[in-house]
Design brief:
This protein is an all-alpha fold and 69 residues long. It has one domain. Helix 1 packs across helix 3. The N and C termini lie far apart (25 Å). This is GcrA cell cycle regulator.
């Protein structure tokens, strides 16, 4: 299980551990919107929405068609 983070961009008041790449994929599979996953990953991992989208696509084996869920 890998965890992608940018330690210098993690929110200073975060108490939870960083999300793993697999956890982000599981959130997507459960139907969570990408904006929700990106918000959590921005605070906990310091990631941008583009980075989160790329991770979810890699973990879930998705192809970007330009439309989001």
């Amino acid at each position: 299980m890998s965890t992608t983070t940018h330690p210098d961009r993690i929110h200073k008041n975060v108490r939870q551990p960083p999300l793993t790449d697999e956890e982000m994929g599981q959130m997507w599979r459960k139907g969570e919107p990408m904006s929700y996953i990106a918000h959590a990953a921005r605070r906990r991992n310091g990631l941008s929405i583009a980075e989160v989208r790329a991770i979810v696509h890699r973990v879930c084996g998705l192809v970007d068609m330009g439309a989001g869920r």
